[in-house]
Amino acid sequence: MTAPASDNLATSLREAMLSFVGSVTIITTHWQDRDYAMPASAVNSVSFSPPSMLVCVNRTALIWQALSQGADFAINLIGPEQRHILDHCIATTGAARFSCGIWRRITHLPAILENATAALTCRQMATMCVGSHQIIVGEVSAIHHKTSRSKLAYVDREFYEI
């Protein structure tokens, strides 16, 4: 196997990433009396002590405006039964993303999707800019979890129930 030319690295990486299986989430935040949401698969755990998660957000995404100001965020893990909510979030922008599904809001905190497989509220603790994206690490401050055998995964540009 030969290494691709440097101008093809981004394309080769994009193709290789199609083989990675990712969880399906909707990231939410609340900043300056406005709710933001974004579908995301670039989410991962960081540590159990302190309990922390990371999200990667393109700096052109609307949600980045709020996150770049240090806003808390929530990670809503989407199961197969919420697929229609995910599809709605993908197809819309702004406040319209919250018009499908039941979202629980507590003043000045990110919205939590009712009946999500899991919802983790996080306080920002570190950020790092890498290329077009911002890596945001948050300490988990609250967890809502339901037992569900079915999960939704993203691989090869498709969603699968596993």
Q: Count of helices? A: 3
CATH fold naming: Pnp Oxidase, Chain A
What is the mean pLDDT?
Answer: 92
The overall strand count is 12
The whole-angstrom Rg is: 16 Å
Order of helices and strands: HEEEEEHEHEEEEEE
Strand content: over 45%
CATH superfamily: Electron Transport, Fmn-binding Protein, Chain A
- Order of strands across the biggest sheet? 3-2-6-9-10-5-4
Largest sheet: 7 strands, antiparallel
Tally of discrete structural domains: 1
Structural class: mainly beta
The helical percent reads 10-25%
Shape label: globular
Q: What report would you give on this structure?
A:
By secondary structure, the protein is mainly β. The protein has one domain: Electron Transport, Fmn-binding Protein, Chain A (Pnp Oxidase, Chain A). 15% of the residues lie in helices and 45% in strands. It is built from three helices and twelve strands. A seven-stranded antiparallel β-sheet has the order 3-2-6-9-10-5-4. The chain has a three-stranded antiparallel β-sheet with strand order 1-11-12, with no helix packed on it. The protein has a two-stranded antiparallel sheet with strand order 7-8. A hairpin with a 7-residue loop joins strand 7 and strand 8.
Please tag this protein with its features.
Pnp Oxidase, Chain A, 162 residues, mainly beta, 3-stranded antiparallel sheet, 7-stranded antiparallel sheet
